[in-house]
Amino acid sequence: MCVICGCADSGEKIHEYRHEPAPLPVASAPQVDAQTGDLHFGAGSARVSVPGMSQERAIRLETDILGANNRIARQNRLHFEAHGVTALNLVSSPGSGKTTLLCATIEALKQRHPGLAVSVIEGDQQTSFDADRIRATGAPAIQVNTGKGCHLDAPMVAEAFGRLHSHGSHEAAHHHGHEEHSLLFIENVGNLVCPAAWDLGEAAKVAILSVTEGEDKPLKYPDMFAAARLMVLNKTDLLPHLQFDVQRCIEFARRVNPGIEIIQLSATTGAGMDAWLHWLEHAMGGQTEHSHAHVDSASHGTTEAVLRQRIAALEAELAAAHAASAAA
Fold first, then answer.
1. Which parts of the sequence belong to the CobW/HypB/UreG nucleotide-binding domain (predicted)?
2. How far apart are CA 134 and CA 99, in angstroms?
């Protein structure tokens, strides 16, 4: 899990020493397949192996870090709901077409709902290329560069949202009952592993899978698709040129997450975009007609429930590890 693999370290430089380095710490013993010899380092109670770190310590560290993040995520969610903001966390591997889909979506929403405020938080390790593309559509965007980090977290989103140009109207909203509804897209760093565990305060995670990636992705990266409320199967215009089994992909996704919704589209040609736009309207609870009704709590229930279950499992495993240690 990303919270203990070192991807979000403090950026300390590695120094060279003239003396012999200490022996490298050994990772936890993997589970070995007796027939093939394949190694599974995620079979322990912590579901991850870190050199020099016990499973008990890994569980404790992950629990502490996710707990701190989730407290801020809850604050984000309350703030979004109080001010009529539907926030969606777009997750995928690099190159799935997230930014292209966002640009096409923003342009379509201009025609479909001219009064709807749409803004974007863009996550990448470096550059502002994607935010620049979003700004070219006329929508406000804030680029968040994570450096060595491989995902956005709740504090980053809170900071970025506060800096969005559209946020100026939100300050006044603290003094009255409601305001016009708006849509916030959070385009996470391209990564199918780490963003799965990090709640940003979103109403839902949307996993985008392009047909160029292969239909087995939901089984290879199950945590992400288990946490997602919707899977968008993108770049369908390329299907005639690929050996991609759409039904097999859908079967794999529903094997991991039986309740996941699935939309097939091409952000380039526009095929299937109506279904995506309708899904967005439903996610906003019909508030594009300025009903000012809050988004139903179920819109974020799946994501939050997955995280709560993971934290509960970690706490139970930590208690079991303590008990085993005491018995020994």
1. 89-263
2. 8
pTM: 0.72
Residues 186 and 153: their CA atoms lie apart, in Å, by 11
Answer yes or no: is 243 within a domain.
Answer: yes
Q: Are 127 and 99 in contact (CB under 8 A)?
A: no
| 248: CATH | 3.40.50.300
Distance CA 210, CA 189 (A): 16
Report how far residue 310's alpha carbon sits from residue 44's, in angstroms, rounded to the nearest whole number. 14
Domains contained in the chain, number: 1
Q: What residue has token string 């394949």? A: 38
Q: What is the pLDDT of residues 63-101, one digit of tens each?
A: 666 788 999 999 999 999 999 999 999 999 999 999 999
* Token digits of residue 159: 């900071």
- Does a structural domain hold residue 254? yes
Any idea which residue has 């604050």 for tokens? Answer: 75
In a domain, 328, yes or no: no
